[in-house]
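Support request, please re-run this one:
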Amino acid sequence: MPKVRVQKEHGLTRQEAVECIHALLADVQRDYGQYIDRFDWNGSGDGGTGKGTGFKIRFSIDDVAIDVTIDISFVFSPLKSKVTRKINEKLTDAFAKTE
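Re-run finished. Output below.
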């Protein structure tokens, strides 16, 4: 499967960044829920996994940045650059809402 990897500095505390990602995932679930099977947070609450139609996602948040890796099915590989751009936009918007 082709991979999309996005690392984005958040400029927030880890907890603030986690709260932003919780809100972002809720928005994504609302807007694209028909394509998403689930998002699961890890035990420490600063990362997790998800899967849906044609993709698997892993994400982790540390004191400086969020790291997102998405495995996209070959069928959707022509959309790789669009997916990368959309993830960057969503993360930028999510972290900007705290300013």
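Residues 24 and 90 are 8 Å apart (CA to CA). The chain has a mean pLDDT of 92.
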